[in-house]
Amino acid sequence: MRDVLQKVNLGDIGFVSIRDGVIVYKLEIQQKGLDYPFQIGNGVKFGDSTVAQEINVTVRTWAVIVIPTDGLFDNVHNKELEKLIRDGLAD
């Protein structure tokens, strides 16, 4: 059985889908420069909601979806994240 994960994404909080301990999908972050993610709001310095990404990803049973807090992908390498998930599922 396949299901679809639907997400609207804006800025530097993406997500990864991990299957069998390996990242099979990683949503790239949206940023204008280092530490300058896309944002929406009122005012000249903000963008509008049209820059948001609408994502539909097919996921399988037992897929692990990681939706991080700010900074996870800046501080944890993909291989390290995969190992953490594998070790956690093995327990």
Automatic annotation (TrEMBL):
One of its GO terms (molecular function) is metal ion binding. Keywords: Hydrolase, Magnesium, Manganese, Metal-binding, Protein phosphatase. Its cofactor is Mn(2+); Mg(2+). It is an enzyme of class 3 (hydrolase). It catalyses: O-phospho-L-seryl-[protein] + H2O = L-seryl-[protein] + phosphate; O-phospho-L-threonyl-[protein] + H2O = L-threonyl-[protein] + phosphate. It comes from Solanum chilense (Tomato). Its EC number is 3.1.3.16. The keyword Hydrolase applies. Belongs to the PP2C family. InterPro entries: PPM-type-like_dom_sf, PPTC7. This is Protein phosphatase.
